[in-house]
Design brief:
By secondary structure, the chain is α/β, with parallel strands linked by helices. It is built from 23 helices and 25 strands. It is globular.
């Protein structure tokens, strides 16, 4: 029941951020499918009078002697042109004639009224990444504009998605010549970010957006890794996963460029951060319960400023927080580029960042004068690894671990990280410090920044392995602890426990994406023999392990008593003729001296692809790839 309540709140965020004038009258189209009924509830919860107009009450267009005529049920003149707003959220996909429904809507609006529309995009990037179409439950149907459906499939469809160009055509045909599209990610059912069509974000979206899918098991690309290239090539907006469209009859647009939403955080923490085109950034609570969090944000900024942390100037304005728009370099992007260009300067700047975090609050006294540390330290940080039971330690024990554990902050701000920071004129300037945790290791906060820098940029490990940074800041011993502190905080903030089933059904797993991509490189039979049925044609044959490193060792430890290993193969000439575990290491060329039906090759190398190509080029077919992490 708790999860069901949270799930009902997620789709509402698409309109909760939008400022609807007090005393306005609104109509909301509702369909039997989708979340349109929840949208009506969202407005009603804000005290707005809403008329619900079921989609099936609007009859389709009829043709009479070549002339077009509207014959709508309940189409009385008294009900026309009386609404300030008409909402068609998650509805247009279920119409029989989208253009005519929009014409009908236009007739309901006052001369200064607005249509607010939101819909899926059949050309959304998530579909190109392998997600199934929302209406056919098959891959690529929407991308192909549903051209290859069988007749029975068309008959059973209850809706279909449209592209941006199609939606634009429908709107203009209906008389909505003024319209402004916002691109929605990851999808309109749970919007996390809205971007105006004429605006490019000044931040990396890969660590802002958590992609969601109809069927994550078929996804074969990491969607968020594509965002930078889509932005650079002007493709982000046409390939948005959904659209929110503002259509005023008098061209009076809300001056908004970007909206960041956190609807999954629950009513007390759900926020909308609105970047306005007039250079103002406004932070609003999505629900009345969240206004307390805004007051806490102001108090947090005062606390951090008193400890020398530079923050964007933030003020309260009625029920919101406002700050100037800053065009500085997002700190995460700054660190990534700096690491590629100048490793030494990168380390100097990261040290400066670490110094800010370490001195961002009052440290707990290790000498026992603060007894809260002794108690909370025992409870939070000191657990027996073998049994999981909490050890009974005293303040002197914690004092002995001071150097390894690092500075403990009475008030630690988990968002004091590169994600919430700009690099401006040689300084790090932070923003959005909404909450703090008590008695938090400063290293846990710094650990989060290091993870942000390397997230989806594994190539940076080749320049400077992140483990060297963990070593540099003394995080190795308690690295698991720091990760747990941050993970626990994020789980609480994002309501992961309450929404666990929802996230499990909609968010892809890293290993699944890699598996799907690997499968695409081979025929079904090849893939099965190489990666799945790896022990085929092994009985009664000589078994050679290609590779003589860790993977080969793990194979031998696990299967050495089941299958007799004849020898190792290796491309390293210096290893030829040597032995490992008493077994000879040879050149792959020895296979030419053996009949194909007499041997089996098991590739035991992490980077297996070059070896696969090598064996295929030599005409060797009886081989498989061993993955020690696979089932």
């Amino acid at each position: 029941m708790v999860e069901e309540q949270y799930l009902k709140q997620l789709p509402k965020a698409i309109v909760q951020w939008y400022e609807v004038k007090k005393g306005s009258r609104a109509a909301c189209l509702t369909a039997g499918c989708g979340n349109s009924v929840l949208i009506a509830e969202a407005l009603e919860e804000r005290g707005i009078y809403v008329d619900r107009i079921p989609l099936d009450k609007i009859e389709c267009l009829r043709e009479y002697k070549g002339e077009r005529k509207h014959d709508y049920i309940d189409d009385r003149e008294s009900e026309k042109k009386i609404y300030d707003y008409v909402l068609a959220i998650d509805v247009i996909e279920y119409t029989q004639d989208a253009g005519e429904v929009l014409r009908y809507i236009r007739g309901l609006l006052k001369s200064d009224g607005k249509l607010l529309l939101a819909a899926d995009n059949r050309l959304g990037i998530r579909y190109f990444c392998g997600d199934r179409d929302s209406f056919t439950c098959k891959n690529y149907d929407g991308i192909e504009n549903y051209k290859h459906l069988l007749s029975w499939e068309r008959e059973t469809m209850n809706g279909r998605a449209y592209s941006k160009a199609e939606l634009t055509r429908f709107l203009e045909k209906a008389g909505f010549y003024g319209h402004r599209f916002f691109s929605v990610f990851p999808r309109i059912e749970n919007p996390q970010i809205l971007l105006a069509e004429d605006y490019e974000p000044n931040e990396a979206l890969d660590i802002r957006v958590f992609p969601e899918y109809n069927n994550p098991d078929t996804v074969f690309l990491f969607e968020e890794e594509l965002y930078p290239d889509l932005i650079e090539n002007k493709l982000l907006h046409p390939m948005a996963n959904g659209f929110f469209v503002e259509c005023p009859l008098n061209s009076d647009y809300v001056p908004v460029n970007q909206v960041t939403l956190s609807g999954e955080r629950g009513e007390e923490n759900a926020m909308a951060t609105v970047i306005r085109s007039d250079g103002v950034v406004e932070k609003r609570a999505l629900y009345p319960a969240g206004r307390k969090r805004l007051r806490q944000l102001l108090e947090n900024h005062e606390y951090l400023s008193a400890h020398g942390v530079k923050l964007i100037d933030t003020k309260q304005k009625e029920d919101s927080i406002v700050m100037p728009y800053v065009s500085g370099i997002p700190a995460t992007d700054y660190f990534r580029e700096l690491l590629k260009q100048d490793k030494e300067t990168f380390l100097q700047q990261l040290d400066a960042f670490w110094d800010i975090v370490m001195h961002s609050g009052t440290p707990v006294d290790y000498d026992g004068t603060d007894r809260d540390l002794a108690e909370s330290g025992k409870e939070m940080y000191c657990k027996d690894k073998a049994s999981g039971d909490k050890q009974k330690r005293t303040a002197p024990d914690i004092k002995g671990e001071k150097e390894a554990l690092g500075v403990i902050l009475k008030r630690g701000y988990p968002d004091l990280v590169s994600l919430n920071c700009f690099y401006i004129d040689g300084e790090f300037v932070f923003y959005d410090q909404e909450m703090y945790l008590e008695n938090v290791p400063a290293k846990a906060i710094m650990y989060r920044t290091i993870e942000f820098i390397y997230k989806f940029h594994d190539q940076l490990d080749a320049v400077l392995p992140r483990d060297e940074l963990f070593e540099r800041y003394g995080m190795i011993k308690y690295k698991a602890l720091y990760d747990k502190v941050i993970t626990s905080f994020l789980n609480m903030l994002r309501r992961d426990d309450e929404l666990s089933d929802y996230f499990r059904e909609g968010r892809r797993e890293y290993g699944t994406v890699l598996e799907n991509r690997r499968r695409m490189n081979y025929s079904e039979k090849e893939y099965s023999l190489i990666f799945k049925d790896i022990f085929h044609d092994i009985e009664g044959r000589r078994l050679y392990l290609f590779g003589s490193g860790k993977y080969a060792q793990r194979f031998r430890e696990k299967y050495g008593t089941v299958y007799s290993i004849t020898g190792y193969l290796d491309n390293d000439e210096e290893r030829w003729g040597t032995e490992m575990d008493g077994i000879l290491i040879s050149a792959p060329a020895i296979l030419k001296e053996i009949k194909p039906e007499e041997y089996k090759v098991m590739i035991c190398i992490k980077n297996y692809l070059p070896v696969v190509r090598q064996l295929q080029k030599e005409g060797i077919r009886n081989f498989s790839v061993y993955d020690p992490d696979a089932d």
